[in-house]
Each structure stands twice: as C-alpha cells, then as structure tokens.
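In the current project phase, our protein records have gained a structure token line. A sample record follows, to show the layout:
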Amino acid sequence: MRRSEFERAVADEFGAQSVALLSDLTLQPLGNRTAREALADGEPPRSVWLALCAEADVPAARRYGVGRLDPRER
C-alpha cells in the first residue's frame, strides 16, 4: 500500500473523522503512537491502515484492497 492509497482509504472509510483519527487515536499495535506519528517514524502505510482498522472495528471485508484507483479512472 502506497501512502496515497492509505490516504484515500482513510478518507473513504472515515470521512470527516479521518483528520481527528489520524492525529488523536493512539494505536497499541504501533507502540501507542498515532497513525501520523507512526507514518512519520517510517511505519509502512499498510501496517498503519490495518492497526487503524482494528482499533476502529472496520469489518475485514473493507480492510483489504482499498485505496487503489480503479484502472479506468487513471
């Protein structure tokens, strides 16, 4: 997962709450860092996405393959 895919996935899943979630929610699997801190520290976007999904109870069906652009829209 690229950073741009991560950002699209977060915006699509969490909408207006995404800014607050990325900055305020600490994620235990990532050492109790926020998503922004983890990304700034070099954590892979996929790891941050999965930790964020687990903490926010995002159903498994919406966790994988998100954030990618439809090839027809490129």
About this structure: Residues 3-65 form one domain.
